[in-house]
Amino acid sequence: MGQVVDIQEHKHLLEIKQVNIEGYDGERWKPIVHSMDLHLKRGEVLGLIGESGAGKSTLGLAAMGYAQSGCRIVSGSIGFDGIDLMALSEQAQIDLRGSRIAYVAQSAAASFNPAHRLIDQFAEGPVQHGLMSYKDAVAKAIDLYRKLDLPHPEKIGYRYPHQVSGGQLQRAMVAMAMATDPDIIIFDEPTTALDVTTQIEVLVAIKDVIKELNTGAIYITHDLAVVAQLADRIMVLRHGKLVEEGDARRMLDNPREDYTRRLLAVRSLGEKKLLLERDPNVVLEISGVSAGYQKDVNVVQDINLKVRRRKTVAVVGESGSGKTTVARIVTGLLPANRGQITFNKKVLSPDLASRDRECLRRLQMIYQMPDVALNPRQKIKTIIGRPLSFYFNMKGKELTKRVEELLKMVELPLHYINRFPAELSGGEKQRICIARALAANPDLIICDEVTSALDQLVAEGILNLLQRLQNELGISYLFITHDLATVKAIADEIVVMYKGRIVEQGSKNEILQPPHHDYTQLLLSSVPEMDPDWLDNLLEEREAV
Amino acid sequence: MLTLIKQSPLSAKIGMLIILINLGTVLLAPQIAPYGETELIGDVWAPMSAEHLLGTDQLGRDMFTRVLYGARNTISIALAIVFLSFGFGCSCGLLAATLGGWVDQLLGRVVDVVMAFPTLIFALMVLSVLGTSIPTLIFVIAILDSTRVFRVSRAVAMDIEVMDFVEVARLRGEGLWWIMCNEILPNALPPLIAEFGLRFCFVFLFISSLSFLGLGIQPPTADWGSMVRENAGAISFGIFSPMFPALAIAVLTIGVNLVVDWMLKRSSMLRA
Question: Which fold has domain A282-529?
Fold first, then answer.
């Protein structure tokens, strides 16, 4: 670090004192952030860490004197460079935002207007605030695009948002935030939606440009390893309260609070894998399968893989590598153009409509987003009970008893039986999805990114549960994920996919130990580690190669 | 159910009261009404008095009696039309969204053709061919209205159809009926209920336009829409009588929408 010579001499650029923020839940106002203090010096990077609902985004926005609709800042003071933001008029606040305080949102794809060129959207802020002419803004944009290492900085601005990649778009948004040389930038999970390989590009760009322009930054994320690369100081939040605050290195080396320690712990499973000899029973075999969404255009090609009983096969790759397509082929939603799938020694017909009920029962699926995988209008009893009545003709007391058993299996209290999904948390909803899949007594469960939408600690709980169920019931999993930490925790075998093809496959140890295929190497080395020097070291290594 | 009504906000209670009063009138009009529906009892456009609570109409019939009977005719016909058009439009809309492919195309194009004609002219054509009786009237307006319901329900259902929980049901091997009724319909209800409230009110106006052209409810049968039209001339003489059927339409419209609003709010709260 050490990019600022005398941090101590600077006064606090941003000083939030005893701020209380409330949110409206449809009936009454509930506190989201409890009497929080926050301060930031010029050129300092502050990491805000916490799981969803911790209030970190709300606090980040409050630093601009802004509250999202449905939220209000109840009390406290927000001082920015000697100005009290709370006392300013709406117009004066707007003048500050986007000129002296800027914001980078999580999803660049959703934040850019698809109908305008990047450079016009870049210029809008400075021109609107009367800081630059359009021409100057264009020159500035090109300069920033170059600093952020975007390809063809002179030309890329004249493209539309859909014409550049996700990582490039995120960097273009960082450039937009920097357009007016703001004193503070608030980064709200800017890399969460990106693949690990793209995440690095953006992290490097952010790190360099903040250092060069000596901008103060608040970096909001749920991923400690990411923040470790950037932040000078870290604040850990939980339920709208501060858990721990301190110098980044100190906190990573020596966390004081138990909660921080749990966040820091490398993802590990409490449940041990049952180490059995290779079960000769192959549950699912895919051989030579190619498929695509149009005729003669194959998105995935020549897929061969085997899933054995009581084993977990993880399919990894970045987005667009075709891993979800593989799941859709197995379930019959996307009929294969070529190749053959064998399930329980029987050849599966390629399309869903011609599969029999018994075969559908044995093959279940769990989805990434439990929110949309559960019908919001059905009670838990119906959601879990329907497969029971559908496949096993269970009724009345027998059905209720079995639903209760299943709830117990996924470690949820029995009184949830009469609740609606909206009354459950994200992790609990995912457990309901698991219970619904279990209700069918399946041989194979396809898990499509089942932990990516969940907070780290909750995800760990889900992985533990899946492992325990595998040990007890002997289910096999086809585990689709982009998260290598998850793979390390749960997989027996790994299949690495890239651009619709399998580039490497084998047992976990074979894949995770060198020598690697080039792409596997890139993927493995891109996963951020808790070490604050990791990013610098990695860049040096890559340059050396 | 009772506790549900008790917990409802004041606006919804007012709405329910209005609807209850109207339904009461529908059932009890002959008992409450002081005179006969088509009875001529006094001067033309007599002012309000103890004998004629709301005055008399353009032929000297008692306005109060006419408004009561008008409720009976208008509301029952409008309800029949709306239920029929929703039953038909929604089932086709959900079917098109769930099945997709050629079913969707076929239904969609048929609806396009029907919608290409201005509704009023289409209704006039059909009614003059089939003749005007109340069942034909109900049937024709219901079919015409169901094209709009089809559009709305199909659009809503399309959004729900792509959700993972519908895919889960498909993968489970569920049939069309279960997917339509248990997975899609309950989630499509809020916008459909809102549409129901609106359609119900539009139907009054449509019936009255048809009546004005001589193809709707035939005189001397009382209905609110045609009563407004028939008495409209009185306004220029400063006479209030046409205001009363108009007021009845307005009050019922507001009442229905107050209840619909509350139902919308309640059902949207269940969504995450």
Answer: Rossmann fold (3.40.50)
Whether residue A421 lies within 8 A of chain B, CB to CB, comes out as: yes
Cβ pair A372:B163 closer than 8 A: yes
Taking the C-alpha atoms of A528, A530, A535 and A537 in order, what is their torsion angle to the nearest 10 degrees?
A: -120
Q: Do B165 and A372 touch (CB under 8 A)?
A: yes
Q: What is the pLDDT of residues A240-273, one digit of tens each?
A: 888 889 888 888 888 888 888 887 775 556 666 6
A12-24 β-sheet, strand order: A29-41, A12-24, A71-80, A83-84
Q: Is the pLDDT of residue A164 over 70?
A: yes
- ipTM of predicted assembly, 2 dp: 0.78
Look at A5-19, A88-102, A196-210, B132-146 and tell me which has the smallest mean pLDDT: A5-19
CATH 1.10.3720.10 fits B9-27+61-269, yes or no: yes
| A145-149 average pLDDT score | 84
Q: Where does chain A hold its CATH 3.40.50.300 domain(s)?
A: 44-54+90-264, 282-529
Task: Tell me how close the Cα of A314 comes to any Cα of chain B, in angstroms.
Answer: 21
- Phi and psi dihedrals of A228, rounded to 5? -60, -30
The alpha-carbon gap from B192 to the nearest alpha carbon of chain A, in Å, equals 15
If phi > 0 it is left, if psi is from -120 to 50 it is alpha, else beta; for residue A240 that is left
The pTM of the full predicted model, rounded to 2 decimals, is 0.80
Point out the least confidently predicted range of A120-124, B45-49, B138-142: B45-49
Structure token pair of residue A311: 């084993």
Token pair for residue A176? 């937009």
Query: Does A377 lie at the interface with B, CB-CB under 8 angstroms?
Result: yes
**H/E segment holding residue A12:** strand A12-24
Residue B157 confidence (pLDDT) above 90: yes
Q: Does B87 touch chain A (CB under 8 A)?
A: no
Residue with tokens 């599966």: A348
Comparing alpha-carbon positions, the chain B residue that sits nearest to A374 is B165
Q: Using CA atoms, how far apart are residues A279 and A309, in angstroms rounded to an integer?
A: 6
Q: Are B56 and B63 contacting, i.e. CB atoms less than 8 angstroms apart?
A: yes
Q: What is the pLDDT of residues A313-372, one digit of tens each?
A: 999 988 778 888 899 899 988 888 888 999 988 888 888 888 888 899 999 999 988 888
What is the per-residue pLDDT for B272? 37
Domains of chain B, by residue range, sit at 9-27+61-269
Token reading at A34 = 């409890």
Query: Is B168 touching A (CB cutoff 8 A)?
Result: yes
Secondary structure (DSSP) of A450-510 = TTTTS-HHHHHHHHHHHHHHHHHH--EEEEEES-HHHHHHH-SEEEEEETTEEEEEEEHHH
Cα angle A105, A107, A109 (rounded to 5 degrees) comes to 120
Gap between the Cα atoms of B271 and A378, Å rounded: 11
If one looks up domain A44-54+90-264 in CATH, what number appears? 3.40.50.300
- Measure in Å the smallest separation between the Cα of A422 and chain B Cα atoms: 5
In the stretch 172-191 of chain B, residues with CB closer than 8 A to chain A read: 172-174, 182-183, 186-187
Establish if A351 touches chain B: CB-CB under 8 angstroms. Answer: no
User: Do A377 and B167 count as a contact with CB atoms less than 8 A apart?
Assistant: no
Cβ contact B168–A26 (<8 Å): no
